[in-house]
Specification:
This protein is of the alpha/beta class and about 400 residues long. It has 14 helices and 12 strands.
Amino acid sequence: MTDEFHRIRRLPPYVFAEVNKAKAAARARGEDIIDLGMGNPDSPTPPHIVQKLVETVADPRAHGYSVSKGIPGLRRALAGYYGRRFDVKLDPETEVVATLGSKEGLANLSAAITSPGDTILVPNPSYPIHQFGFIIAGASVRSIPARPGEDMLRALDRAVRHSVPKPTALIVNFPSNPTAFLADLDFYKELVAFARREEIWILSDLAYAEIYFGNNPPPSILQVEGAKEVAVEFTSLSKTYSMAGWRMGFAAGNPRLINALTRIKSYLDYGAFTPIQVASVAALNGPQDCVEQMRTLYRERRDVLIRGLSAAGWEVPSPEGSMFAWAPIPERFAHLGSVAFSKLLLSKAGVAVAPGLGFGEYGEGFVRIGLVENTQRLRQATRNIRSFLAGNNAGPPAAAHDAADAVHLEKA
C-alpha cells in the first residue's frame, strides 16, 4: 500500500502549521502572544441574534433533523438581503441554498461541477479553499493575477487560448482574502462578458461584503445583467455578524449551479442546527446597526495598525476592505521568506501573523495581518514590532540560506 491516499497526496504540507506550532510552544512557555494570524472575529455576536438562538433552542421541536438547503425563512431572508443591499432579485426556491459557512459551499460545489483533469482559473495568492477545493475534486489549477484589472483580464484571455482542456470555471474574491483588493462593478461586467463568451462558470466569494472602509460598498457580481447565466456567489454571516463559529453561509445565483450544490449537500448533511438557522434569520432581518458598528470597529483597528507599523518603519498599504492588511516583508528581511520571517516575528516580537506563502506561491514576500485584536493590543503589537525592527534581527547570510531552504521545503 502507498503511504498516502491519492487525494491526500495532492495536498502540500500546510504552510501555516510551522507558525502555529511555534505559537503553541511559545504559549506553553507562558509567553504573551498577540495573535494576528487567523481571521477569527473577536467581537461577540450581537445580543438579539444570541437571544433568538436561545429562544429557539428551548423549543424541543427544533432539535430534530433540519433542511439541508436551509429552512424556507432563511432562504427568503438571504433573498431579502440581496434585494436591499444590491437590488438583485433572487428566487429563494431555485437560486439560494444555505451552506455550513462559505468554505463548505465552495468545496462541495467544486466537487459537484468538476471532472478529473478539468482546468480551473484561480487568483494567486488567494484563500486556500479557492484552489484546493478543486484540487481535491481532481482538477488542475491555473493561476491568474489576484489584482482586478487589465493584467487579470489578459491572463484570462491567455488561459482560454492556451489551456488544455479549456478552463471550465473561474474563482474571484473581492474584497479579497488575503490581499484586501476590491473590485468595482465595471470590472465585474468585464468578467461576466468574458464568462458568457467563453462559457465558463464564475464562483464569486463575497464573504467580506460588509467590511469596507470607503464610501462605496463593494458590489455583487450578480448586479451585472446576465450574471446569473454564468455566476454563483458565496456569502457568509461569519464576519458581518461575528458568527464565525456558527458556520452559516449561502450560495446564490445561477439555478443550475445552485441545484448541483443542493443535490450534493442532500447526500452529505441535514443542514445547520435549526436554532442556528432561525437565529440567522434574525441576523439578516433584524436591526443592522450592529453591522455599521462592526465596520467602524475594523476601520479604527486598521488605522491603529497601519499608523503603528509606519511609526515602526514598516510601510504597509492601508486596506480599503476585508479584515486584513497584506504586508510586504521589510526589505532587509526579504531574504528570509514569509515562513521564516513569521516565525522570527513571533519569537522576537511576540506577534503571530500568517505567512503569505500559505496563500499561494505568489504570496511569497508578504504576510497577512488580521485586525482581530482590540486597539490596545494592536498598539502593543506595533510597539513590539518597532523594538524588533530596531534591533539587528535580520540574521547573517548563513541563516538566510537556512531559512530559504526551509521555505523551499514548505513549497514542496
